[in-house]
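User: Here's a structure from my thesis project, written as structure tokens. My advisor, Dr. K., wants to see whether a designed sequence matches the one we expressed. Can you design one independently, without my sequence as a hint?
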């Protein structure tokens, strides 16, 4: 009876799910990628229960892992404060909650969240006054300031021209929006923003930071590089941002309303310690060593001298070469081959699936020079397969 490949793969690991793939298949890790292609050891994405979309009349529900900054209640107003000057004591905001929305009280000043955060996915909905007053920058003006610095413009530009880099959805003073996707004044507009702050190392700019903005589902900022925080009349320049900062909303003299404000923190980029994407050579080497150590530890939990233990140790060589581990794999392979040779011909068919799995593993290792091209396990297993006619039989 043929041993199912899935059963052997399951035995090879106490934590890798069968459905996550064959460890000896995709291209292996390289100098800047710690993971193999289709790597079953790569962590599974965390489950996030999605929320619901908003309608003009009703805000949607945030995803399960969102941190809610304003949910339409008076209680959530406590998460905000007046944007006082550095060194001044904190003060409550004078903005009000009306009909489930956070409404700017003109001339009361900007507000900010008490909570501070950095890279994020931000969702925020806003509505300019239904009664149109003013034009250009004087009509439904406010702003969403990521970390209190980089401004995504809020402005009623429904049939209301203004300078392009101050348009609704602009990265203010830096980059105009790609399109005007606004609904009429009085209706809620939806901003979904992905924000990455600048990264500096030893005073040198490594990553300028980026912002992506969707307005009412329409892309208006496409991974736009930051050029500092932007600003009014003056061109800003690259400069470090803090690790975290508040979200600020601007008082520009118009009673703009906001609702359904939440964010999701984003994991670090590869350039700042994340483990996905292309890493530095040093970070890749360290991560590969960590994966190899985990696999070798896992191998100690498998039956001693078993095929599963041999393959688990062989898998670790894909991430990090180790002469002692390679020797142990060779010893186990020689023992396994001797056992097969001593197995009566009538019983070998039962071991076919296992033997072919071992052969494919060593062929993979040889392909990428992790074992010798003429490794004894390859030659020995191929001879047994030829004698049994496995390469001619339907699998």
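Assistant: Designed independently from the structure alone:
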């Amino acid at each position: 009876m043929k041993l199912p490949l899935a059963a052997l793969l399951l035995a090879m690991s106490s934590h890798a799910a069968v459905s996550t793939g064959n460890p000896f298949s995709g291209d292996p890790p390289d100098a800047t990628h710690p993971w193999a292609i289709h790597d079953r050891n790569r962590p599974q994405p965390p489950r996030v229960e999605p929320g619901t979309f908003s309608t003009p009349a009703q805000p949607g529900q945030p995803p399960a892992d969102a941190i809610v900054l304003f949910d339409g209640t008076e209680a959530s107003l406590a998460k905000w404060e007046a944007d006082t000057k550095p060194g001044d004591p904190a003060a409550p905001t004078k903005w009000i909650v009306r009909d489930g929305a956070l409404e700017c009280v003109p001339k009361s000043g900007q507000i900010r969240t008490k909570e501070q955060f950095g890279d994020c996915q931000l969702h925020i909905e806003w509505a300019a006054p239904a009664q149109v007053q003013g034009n250009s920058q004087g009509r439904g003006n406010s702003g969403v300031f990521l970390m209190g610095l980089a401004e995504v413009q809020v402005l009623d530009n429904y049939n209301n021209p203004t300078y392009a880099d101050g348009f609704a959805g602009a990265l203010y003073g830096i980059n105009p929006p790609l399109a005007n996707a606004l609904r009429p004044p009085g209706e809620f507009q939806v901003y979904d923003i992905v924000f990455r702050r600048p990264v500096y190392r030893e005073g040198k700019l490594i990553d300028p930071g980026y912002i992506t903005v969707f307005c009412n589902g329409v892309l208006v900022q496409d991974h736009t590089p930051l050029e500092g925080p932007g600003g009014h009349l003056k061109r800003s320049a690259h400069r470090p941002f803090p690790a975290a900062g508040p979200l600020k909303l601007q008082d520009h003299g118009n009673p703009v309303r906001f609702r359904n404000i939440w964010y999701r923190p984003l994991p670090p980029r590869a350039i700042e310690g994340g483990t996905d994407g292309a890493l530095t050579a040093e970070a890749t080497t360290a991560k590969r060593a960590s994966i190899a150590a985990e696999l070798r530890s896992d191998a100690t939990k498998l039956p001693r001298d078993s095929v599963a233990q041999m393959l688990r140790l062989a898998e670790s060589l894909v991430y990090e070469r180790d002469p002692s581990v390679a020797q142990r794999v060779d010893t186990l392979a020689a023992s396994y081959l001797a056992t097969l040779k001593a197995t009566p011909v009538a019983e070998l068919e039962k071991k076919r699936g296992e033997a072919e799995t071992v052969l494919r593993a060593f062929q993979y290792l040889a392909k990428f020079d992790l074992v010798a091209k003429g490794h004894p396990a390859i030659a020995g297993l191929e001879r047994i397969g030829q004698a049994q006619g496995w390469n001619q039989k339907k699998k």
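When you compare it with your expressed construct, this may help: The first helix runs from residue 5 to 11.
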